Amino acid sequence: MSTADRLRFEGITKTFPGVKALSDVSFSVRPGEIHGLLGENGAGKSTLLRILSGVFKPTSGSLLVDGETVSFRRPMDARLAGIAMIHQELQQVPHLTVAQNMFLGHPITRLGGALVARREQERRAAEALAMLDPNIDPAAPISTLKVAQRQIVEIGRALLDKARIIAMDEPTSSLTPSEFERLAEVIAKLAGSGVSIVYVSHKMDEVFRICERASIMRDGRLVDVVDLNQVSHRDVITLMVGRELMQDRHLSHATDIVQLQARNLTSPKIRDVSFSVRKGEVVGIAGLVGSGRTELLRLIAGVDRLSSGSIEIDGRPVTLATPRDAIAAGIGLVPEERKRDGIVPGRSVTMNMALASMPAFSKGGFVASRRLKATASDLLRRVNLRPFLLDRPIRLFSGGNQQKAIIARWLAAQSRILLFDEPTRGIDVGAKAEIYTLIEALAAEGRSIVVVSSELPEVIRLSDRVLVMRDGQIAAELGHEGLTENAIVAHAIPGVSQDAAPAA
User: Fold this and answer.
1) Residue 315 shares a structural domain with residue 353
2) Which domain-ending residue is among 383, 414, 445?
3) Contact (Cβ atoms closer than 8 angstroms) between residue 354 and residue 414
4) What is the C-alpha to C-alpha distance for residues 75 and 354, in angstroms, rounded to an integer?
5) Which domain holds residue 100?
């Protein structure tokens, strides 16, 4: 053990009844280092962070901070030791101010604790935020801030606690590329001041952009610690999943038969949009957040109402006033907000699969359980659900497996047109590759696919054509040949030429 290490995991093992979540994990993080912690869902990352933040105690092994062995009985012990945890889903109280959230649980008081010293809290909050984002008003309700600013508030809260180690769990899952760049600047400032960062993300571009080294986990074990300047994305992914993943080459299954035709679609957020999708074709939709991508899919899925325009399926006009109309017309939506809009968390994965086609599994008001289970077994096996537990509540599955169940839902409904909104958000690299394979298999069967994604490599990888949206309109249509990130960005951002456009 070198005293130069800020943080050291030494032989950490954690066993739950019947499950060994971590096995002899050892690695270190240096002062001022931004250290990636990588692995598929279930690799043990979350368990390790819970041990670091005092939620769990290790079954065996030691945790050392600045060369001293520490032992935490509760999260407050970790905070007092200078360790802060920033969660993917921010733990803030919306109706409180920025300063009140920053002092949540340990307010500054006066008159013997009878009153909260509001002005003093706001002053200290402003001091902590000054190096991060001085434009954030400590007196503002935190609900008025953007997600990126709320992340920065959490970092400011950690600075109030004089944190020496900050662990960030998927901090950019809801951020735009420009918001990520701002957060990256803040993280770099923290590292420059000597704070050590443990950074968890499924986004390889981000990890390589800001981290120096990365510890890679698989099945509860440490596989390797790598210098990210010495390895490729593919090297890291192979270490994470234990196998080579699919090729990055796009495979087209597009035919000449138009299956979906949208003409002059208009709504409060969409202006005169027309496009078509052929059988077997994957059409990508790119653009900045707020450009109208999600709103366009919601119109086609019958979630929102058209002000004007028309939609044809197989050459016949259809009226899509409700999601039920869209389902009946053979359209299925895999929504952006999976947990909020895509699943019923407490119901089984089988029932979630059947949500769009329940009449096919019922008779006389009763569910035909044998037929439902047989269909669920067939379709959920096809999408490679893991673990293959059909009666398990869907909330207990990883994001990737929840997404597979939603895809199986539209297979059960025999949908011919599938709309994917951010299909791999919050999904690990192994599951991401499986989702890509599923999308291509669905296209090969003659289904028409529309994919919205903020990840430009994903749009390029999957699409036969890409529609670039800006201000609720289609700004450009790009064929797959010669399709680049720079070309997309040049059309997505007003006034940016293709030569000048940065890689997104």
Assistant:
1) no
2) 414
3) no
4) 41
5) 7-241
In this structure, the answer to whether residues 58 and 110 fall within a common structural domain is: yes
DSSP state of 195: -
- Cα–Cα distance between 334 and 439 in angstroms, integer? 12
Domain count, the chain: 3
Is the Cβ–Cβ distance between 292 and 270 less than 8 Å?
yes
- Tell whether 214 and 125 lie within a shared domain: yes
CA distance 279 to 316: 15
Residue at 2 is within a domain: no
DSSP H helical ranges for 37-116: 45-52, 75-80, 98-102
Residue 231 forms part of a structural domain: yes
CATH number at residue 58: 3.40.50.300
Establish how many alpha carbons lie within 13 A of residue 38's alpha carbon, considering only the half-sphere containing its beta carbon.
Answer: 33
* Span between the terminal Cα atoms of the chain, in Å: 40
Query: Do residue 94 and residue 114 come from a single domain?
Result: yes
- Side chain identity, residue 95: H
Say if 397 falls within a structural domain.
yes
* pTM of the entire predicted model: 0.71
Reading the block at residue 471, the tokens are 């201000």
Same domain, 355 and 440: no
| Helix and strand totals (H; E) in the chain | 16, 24
18 dihedral zone (left: phi>0; alpha: psi -120 to 50; beta): left
Please say which residue of 210, 241, 272 terminates a domain. Answer: 241
- One-letter amino acid at 352 equals N
CA 142/CA 93 separation, integer angstroms: 8
Do 391 and 426 reside in the same domain of the chain?
Answer: no
**What does the pLDDT profile of the chain (504 residues) look like in tens digits?**
344 899 999 999 999 987 889 999 999 999 999 999 999 877 899 999 999 999 999 999 999 999 999 999 999 999 999 999 988 777 789 889 999 999 987 888 777 666 888 899 999 999 988 878 888 999 999 999 887 788 889 888 888 888 999 999 888 776 777 778 888 988 999 999 999 999 999 888 899 999 999 999 998 999 999 999 999 988 998 898 876 655 567 889 999 999 999 999 999 999 999 999 999 999 999 998 789 999 999 999 999 999 999 999 999 999 999 999 999 999 999 998 888 899 999 999 999 999 999 999 988 778 888 999 999 999 999 999 989 999 999 999 988 899 999 999 999 999 999 999 999 987 888 888 899 999 999 999 999 999 999 888 899 999 999 999 999 999 999 998 878 988 998 898 865 555 544 443
Structure tokens given for 45: 């990352």
Q: Are 259 and 82 in contact (CB under 8 A)?
A: no
342: DSSP letter: I
Residues of the chain by 3-state class (helix, strand, coil), percent to 5: 35, 25, 40
Has residue 249 been placed in a domain? Answer: no
Residue 500's alpha-carbon distances to 142, 209, 396, 488, 494, in angstroms, are 36, 20, 45, 12, 12
